[in-house]
Every structure is written in structure tokens, then in C-alpha cells.
Amino acid sequence: MADSGTQRTYRAPCPGCGAPVEFKSAQSTHAICAYCHSTVVRSGEVLQRLGRMAEVFDDHSPLQLMASGRIALDGQTLPFTLIGRLQYQGEEGRWTEWVAFLQDGSTATLSEDNGAYVFTRPATLGRELPEAERFRVGMTTAVAGQPFSVAANVRAQLVAAEGEVPKLPPLGTPFQVVELRSADGEVLSIDYGTQPPQVQRGRAVRLEDLQFQGLKDESAKEEKGRQFSCPHCGAPVQVQLSSTKSCTCPSCHSLIDLSAGLGGELRHAAQYEPVQPLIPLGSVGQFEGAPWQVVGFQHRTGVEPGDDEHFGWEEYLLYHRQRGFLFLVDASDGWSLVRPATGAPQHKPGAPTATYLGTQYRLTSTYQAETNYVAGEFYWPVERGQKTSNSDFAAVNGKGLLSREQSRSEVTWSHGQRMDSSAVAQAFKLGDKAALFRRQDAGPVAAGSGIGCGTVIVILIVLIILLVLMSNCSGSSGGYYRSSGGSFGGYSTGGGHK
Hints:
This protein is mainly beta. It has two domains: 10-210, no CATH class; 273-427, no CATH class. It has helices at 421-427, 434-437, 443-447, 453-471; strands at residues 10-13, 20-23, 30-32, 38-43, 46-52, 68-73, 76-90, 93-102, 107-113, 116-122, 140-143, 146-165, 175-181, 187-191, 198-205, 227-229, 236-238, 246-248, 255-257, 267-269, 284-287, 290-303, 310-320, 324-331, 334-340, 353-356, 359-378, 387-395, 400-406, 411-419. The strands form four sheets. An eight-stranded antiparallel beta barrel has the order 7-8-9-10-15-14-13-12. The protein has an eight-stranded antiparallel β-barrel with strand order 22-23-24-25-30-29-28-27. Keywords: Membrane, Transmembrane, Transmembrane helix.
């Protein structure tokens, strides 16, 4: 455990049950008794009971209270300890924020971010904050002279907490949460649950880089707490992941909403026309030097404005306990491996180009996307029929991909790269089925150097012959090929806290 070195630990009996309640941070004003769940507030040396806090939903996260790690901040590495946890319910599901107590006596927040994590510290904007309604999703605003894009503006409420916390919004009272993101990956969160609003600023982190000690033992997870009967057919359903917000019944394929927790009323939607994924759920593939498990699958379709031709693609949700989530996208023009972007690429609405992390991308398609079928587990509440406005971009040089996806309350960017179909088959040790993975890969063409002059000449001759033949075909309306495009890992909730 990290030692503050700046203050003594304060301990006093709980006003509700008499059990010891400890405050490690001088900035913590509230604590939740671990025994009777009383919410207590500290006023000097006196503890007062405010009421009883709801128990946190056991999400089987690898994190837990008193787990300790190290974070690089301002040129130095500081130890920290997780001393509190708050769970919020938003319009698109539930998320958790952990209170981190740093060695210098300050506190920070380790929060969920699209299946990954963001480490933030309290910040000031240098000016009076406008009302939350002034932050329109997709707009650009300046913070200390730096442009930020409004990625989310959601309505949320505190549903549970444990440990000690420096702030405690009224339980069950809705408030707005606004998230801003910059082109270089910064995240700025404005919490309107307190007055004045609380501002946090930080960046994405990986758990494995935080050198955690005291994480939960994966083998100690009790699966029985995550089993329930399907509300549609009654068959047993088992939830495997800590962050699952929706899943499907393995028997009747109904889509089940878990965003309110297993103790809440489970909503379901019957699904018909099941689609069989090429890569079975539960398969493990090697990507980026680590094993990733297929935990979710969805089929989506899109249509461009003014066009009645629909196109489809499929997305596999991959999970790694320390690194979070990736998307493996299967479109007719090839495979791609992508992840949600923490930052907001530089892009003006309607512009044909975008820039992200120094790479320029050009717009390739704009369309309306819809989710048609899902299977497995997801860390956001998936609904059949969800619709979003999507824009896809391709790197001017290279195989890079970028996608923008907007719903009513959030904008999500995803980035990644194309993959050769053979590499995808090999990653899952399905080389004997490599033919099933083949798509319209541009692999050799994109490589450039792999094409000889003779090949180029042959291609040109063939094109000339085709043009001549087409010009001689009177009355032919011609035709065209529409690449499926795909959302490259986009999804309908996104945002910083889902």
C-alpha cells in the first residue's frame, strides 16, 4: 500500500454499527462503512451518519480496494492506492470510477473508458464553466487555448459506492457528465453532480503499465453470482466478463440487457434470423503479442444517404484481462483490427479529411449504420436496431483506418489497420480454413514493392481491353461495385464512461 508521508491516517467508530471507519486521505470527506454500508461524513474529528449506501454491483473487476500501483506523472513515478469506488448509471449503461490516493497526498481517478481505463487528476479550466447544455456533442471548444471536441454529454446518477471518496453526489439524483477529448489523446471530464462542477483531466492507461499489486486473483472469481435464467425462455445464462452490459441467451438467442445489474429487472429482445460467426465465440487469437478471446459478435448493415443499396459487415469483440477490448472487423473489402480512440481526431464536420496522431486520413464513405444481430457479451448495452451516423476514413499512406460514429449523446472515434486474411486465420490457428477468411485484400497491391513491371503492364492491357469492350456495349447501364466499408470497430454507445 502507498504511504502518503504527508498526513496521519484517521480512524473512528462508525456511527451506525461501531465498526472502524478509516480515512487515509485528508481530501476525503465521505466514507462508506464496509460492515453496515452507512454513509458517513467527516467533520473535523467527528463522523456523522447520513444514511445507508446501496451495495456496489459485483462486476468481478480485477481491481479492488487497497490494490496499489505506480503512475508516471510530471516526470516522476508516484505510488498510489485505490481507496474508494463509485458506480454510476448513465443513459447507456453503468460504469465505475476508482479513487486513487497518491503518495504526495493528492487523489486521482481511475475510470472506465470504452473497455479500457483513463487516469485523471483534478484540474481547473481557468474560467467559469458554462451550463452543461452549452456543450453540444460534436462541437469544438477551447480549453486554455487548446482545442477539444465534445465527445459525450450524458445524464447519469450515483447508484452505489464503497471506501472513501473526496466527493459524493446525492444518491439517485440525475446530473450531467460532459467529456471533452483533444487530438493528442487528452480526456477532460466535467461532472455536474456537485457545485461547483468537478473537472478531471488525464489520459488513457493500460493496467499492465501501472504495475499493480493486490489485484483480484482471476481464479477466485465466483461465477455463481453471474448466473441467471433467461427472461424469455428460462434457460440458464452465464456471464463471464466483469464489464458485460448485455449478452445473448445461448438457447433462444434473445438479447438481454444487464445494464441495471443482475439484481434489476432483466429486459430482453427476441432475435430471429441468427447469423453464424466464422470465428466461434470463445476462440483465442494472438494479436499484438498477446492472447485475445472472442467474447462478442455482431452483424451490422449500412446505407448511404440517398441510396437504397444496403451493405453489411461483421464485428468480433476481443477481450484481454489487462489490455481491455479490441474489434476484429470482417468486411467484404478485407479484415481490420481496431480499437476505440481515446482522443478526438482533428476533423471539421463535413470535411473530406481528418488527422489523428500525425497521420492524415481521407473520407471514404458516409452512411447510416444499424445493428441487426448480436451474440455473446458486450461492455455496452447493445440493442438490435440501434442506429448511428458513421463516417469512414482511410490513411493517405499505409493501411491505417479511422471511423467516426455518432449517436444522440455521444461521438466515438475508432482507429486501426487492415490485416491480411491469412494473418487472421493464423492468429486463431485456423490455417486449414484459410480459404473461408479470404476477402478482397489489397495486401500485395498496398505493399507496392511486391509488384513487378511485367505485372503492371499486363494489368494495363487487360484494363484497356475491358474499356474497349464496354464502350461497344450499347444500351448497357454499366454497374459498379460497392465496398462494404464497415465501421471499423465503431459502436453505438462509445463515450468515456461506457
